Amino acid sequence: MSLKPLSNDVKQSLIRRLQLILPQDAVLHQNEDIRPYECDGLSAYRNLPLVVALPDSIEQVQTILKLCYELGAPVVARGAGTGLSGGALPHSDGVLLSLAKFKDILSIDPVQCTAVVQPGVRNLAISEAADPHGLYYAPDPSSQIACTIGGNIAENSGGVHCLKYGLTVHNIQSLKMVTMQGELVTLGGTGLDSPGFDLLALMTGSEGMLGVFVEATVKLLPKPQTAKAILAAFDDVVKAGAAVGDIISAGIIPAGLEMMDKLAIKAAEDFVHAGYPLDAEAILLCELDGCDTEVAEHVERVKELLEQGGATEVRVAKDDQERMTFWKGRKAAFPAVGRLSPDYYCMDGTIPRKHLPQVLKTMGELSEEYNLPVANVFHAGDGNLHPLILYDANIPGELERTEEFGGKILELCVEVGGSITGEHGVGLEKINQMCIQFQSAELTQFHAIKNAFDGKGLLNPGKAVPTLHRCAEFGAMHVHNGELPHPELERF
Amino acid sequence: MSNVNNDISHQLQQQIAEAYSSNSPLNICGGGSKDFYGRKIQGDNINITGHSGIISYEPTELVITARAGTPLSEIENALDEKGQMLGFEPPHFADTATLGGTIACNLSGPRRAYRGAARDYVLGSTIINGKAEQLHFGGEVMKNVAGYDVSRLMCGSMGTLGLLLDVSLKVIPKPEAESTVVIECDAQTAIDKVHQWRQQSQPLSASSYVDGKLYIRLASNEASVNAAHKVMGGELIRETNHWHLLKEQQLAFFNTEIPLWRLSLASNATPLSLQGETLYDWGGALRWLRSNESADRIRHAVEALGGHATVFKNNINQIDPFHELSPGIHTMHRQLKLAFDPANILNPGRMYADI
Fold first, then answer.
1. Chain A residues 330-369 with CB within 8 Å of chain B
2. How many domains does chain A have?
3. Tell me, what's the pLDDT at A338?
4. Does A181 share its domain with A218?
5. At the topology level of CATH, where does B4-173 sit?
6. Do A187 and A275 belong together in one domain?
7. Nearest CA in chain A to B203
8. Sign of the Cα pseudo-torsion (A114, A147, A344, A424, in order)
9. Residue B294: its pLDDT value, please?
10. Cβ contacts (< 8 Å) between A425 and chain B: which residues?
11. Could you give the angle at which helices A8-21 and A58-71 cross, rounded to 10 degrees?
């Protein structure tokens, strides 16, 4: 559905009335003040909002949403702005609703293993606060130092531990949400389920399209008695991929199981000196956790499996310090790759793991065709690929070529039965690929769901679910090729 | 494995299309193992048991996809052969239980407290909505955030939003061994101990308390189980059918004619002072109450603790089985029902009178 542009009078009235709701310094509308909000982690897309609102109470959020509902003004919620799909890209006619001031951990219940947190609390801050109780919050996206729990819920964020411990949706117990009409509702409860539909699941990963989250109760896990990490080198990525299947077939679910290819290994090694073998075509990092004796048994078994699977080298971290060093390289892989090239573009497709050899081969061919190098970082255990395409935005046309290449990778993921996004969300970035992932009947059902919550279409308009019209245009563009995915936006 | 003759999706779609055009309600039936659950409804039967068979099972991918009419036992046997299982340990209640009914009711067994519910394992689904459109959501991959999570929304919606055609589930390896520790104590002590051991990261895979005995199931190798037993005390039993009888509600506790309530609340809530007997599962987060106490009293007591109460069986007073929704949440349910089933023909009233 398309929104009517706001008249200048309405825009001025919106800003004036926001100034009555919030203190002066919590309503930003001068160009230099709103500039920091022009993009999220996907900085290729930028757009200035009409106004930025920084509420610090649930009542203020309710009043702001009621006002926007009355005036028909779009609302884009934002946490830390670390998202990688343009989900928090502002709307020119609307309010960029920052939840940055909601940054308190309200309580930790060490007995029930839960924490009540405001949406602007950083992911890692939850685990830090839970640490004295021997607890932690399991989902650990790479951006966990900066990203907020509100954004994590909106995107259903994952991380390296989700094969064993689940995604955000598995680790949230209840959620307070303000509807577009300004009503405060609580989804979930103190128990493990709630009556009626599973609205908590529907909201998780809904990309700011259905409501604004203002408080969450998250589940905490007791820290495992022991964690051990194993690093294995392979002279062939296909062998490394097969070894992942061997471990899982043996009935072992590692806490983390990551793969990096040669380019990613080199980048990470140059950056953090984790001791990665530079001659390897691929490395696997496998973390096993649980009871002491069980972990010890599993370490031996996994070592055997890796050796049988053709690993050229298998190293078990001798202590926690070395384990952290193994992980340091993986966690720093994105910025490390960033040092190899002026710009990189991070993709986020998922595939059934058995198709890994074919997908890597085709990706290699595409890389040659587009003459753009790709480094691969892979949540191998759960089939989530993060190809990083290296490019230089200063070379005219290179960003466009990169985006086209990226689009092809996502289409390849869909072709083999996977998904265009495992954990980064659709946002604006992958909106065209949604037309490939879904048929028009499913997209229509998504719009009906959106309409059930936000009949005026004011929450994060234009994101996550494409209109059928857009898909028709994309289909045409696909045939002709070479047009920009978002001609309406300023390019950087 | 899959047999094309067992794919009756077109027939099912046609039946829904006819019901849609004639505005006549449908009563979705599987094996009938959970007919007692929820509200009684009027409508023409639409039976999914003919839509059966495992479509794909990839043990190394930890994913199984099967048609909704597939017997639950067929799925569990196929997984068992490969040393895997459904992590949510679903109850069957009868040999006829199907995958579709299991997901539509989102019922999970004792392992739920430590390994997650049915909804946590759903990766994708194909459904027919109330406009007779066949729709596919999610898929066979562990991580997928494209579009709203309709597959999980289907869990527990009792067929009121769509008829399930097939479901993809994540599966997990069976533990190498499981043993049970039994300790005699009072209910409060049982609650305290379970929480204490969980915080210690003991390898719990189930915990229940009934008739003055705390049962703890441990899933790990022998050395870890022995170490845990040393901490916990009590009697260590290698083999027991306690968990099966608990899951299937065949323990003596469940042999009753008076209303059986299902209370879902904070696991560490102190024992409620309600008339009747209580069995504790899920480390205290699920409590079965045999009681003639008034529905208002029970619901009020549980709601005060942030939980909810369902009349699960023996609804002799014919009250609404499910806990009343808050007005705002109820409106969302109405709107969602309209979004999926505008003519109100799919199991109308099975969950709430107007849903």
1. 350-354
2. 4
3. 87
4. yes
5. 3.30.465
6. no
7. A291
8. positive
9. 97
10. 145
11. 160
For position A486, what pLDDT does the model report? 61
* Domain at A262, CATH number: 3.30.70.2190
Contact residues on chain A for B174, CB-CB shorter than 8 A:
251
How far apart CA A255 and CA A253 sit, in angstroms, is 7
For chain B, which residues make up each domain, given as ranges?
4-173, 178-247, 256-313
If one counts every other C-beta atom within 10 angstroms of the C-beta of residue A310, the result is: 15
> Does A159 map to a domain?
yes
Give pLDDT tens digits along chain A (492 positions).
Answer: 578 899 999 999 999 999 999 999 999 999 999 999 999 999 889 999 999 999 999 999 999 999 999 999 999 999 999 999 999 999 999 999 999 999 999 999 999 999 999 999 999 999 999 999 999 999 999 889 999 999 999 999 998 889 899 999 999 999 999 999 999 999 999 999 999 999 999 999 999 999 999 999 999 999 999 999 999 999 999 899 999 999 999 999 999 999 999 999 999 999 999 999 999 999 999 999 998 999 999 999 999 999 999 999 999 999 999 999 999 999 888 889 989 999 999 999 999 988 988 899 999 999 999 999 999 999 998 899 999 999 999 999 999 999 999 999 999 999 999 999 999 999 999 999 999 999 999 999 999 999 999 999 999 999 999 999 999 988 766 655 545 556 555 545
Question: CB neighbours of A41 closer than 8 A, spacing ≥ 6?
Answer: A81, A82, A83, A84, A143
Q: Is ipTM over 0.90?
A: yes
Of A109, A90, A448, A387, residue with least CA distance to A260: A387
- Chain A residue numbers touching B190 (CB-CB < 8 A): none
B175 DSSP assignment = P
Q: Which of A419, A435, A453, A467 to probe the B interface (max B CBs under 10 A)?
A: A419
- The dihedral region occupied by B164, where left means phi > 0, alpha psi between -120 and 50, and beta the remainder, is beta
Mutation pick from A153, A162, A198, A465 vs chain B, by most beta carbons of B within 10 Å, is A198
Can you give the pLDDT at residue A477? Answer: 64
Q: Are residues A307 and A366 in the same domain?
A: no
B5 has a pLDDT exceeding 90 = no
Question: What is the domain class of B178-247 according to CATH?
Answer: alpha beta
Distance CA A246, CA A227 (A): 20
Domain end (from A98, A119, A139): A98
Do A351 and A450 have their domain in common?
yes
pLDDT at A484: 53
A364 and A420 together in one domain: yes
**Residue from B111, B165, B157 nearest B133 by CA:** B165
> How, if at all, do strands A135-136 and A75-78 pair?
unpaired
Identify whether residues A325 and A375 lie together within a single domain: no
Q: Which domain holds residue A306?
A: 226-336
Reference B210, options B249, B177, B178, B176; nearest CA is B249
B201/A384 touch (CB, cutoff 8 Å), yes or no: no
Which strand ranges, in their side-by-side order, compose the sheet holding A27-28?
A27-28, A51-53, A95-98, A75-78
State whether residue B350 sits within 8 Å of chain A by CB. Answer: no
Q: With CB atoms and an 8 Å threshold, state whether B332 touches A290.
A: no
Among chain A residues, CA nearest to B162:
A445
Please, which residues 72-91 of chain B have a Cβ atom closer than 8 Å to chain A? Answer: 83-84
Which tokens belong to A69? 């509902």
Residue that has been written with the tokens 């589930």 in this structure: B169
| CA dist., res. B162 & res. B18, Å (int) | 15
Which residue among B117, B149, B266 places its CB closest to the CB of A193? B117
B261 to chain A, any CB pair closer than 8 A? The answer is no
Domain membership flag for residue A1: no
Same domain, yes or no: A234 and A296:
yes
Instruction: Choose one of A287, A311, A336: the last residue of a domain.
Output: A336
Look up residue B71 and give its DSSP letter. Answer: B
Chain A residues in contact with B171 by the CB 8 A cut-off are: none
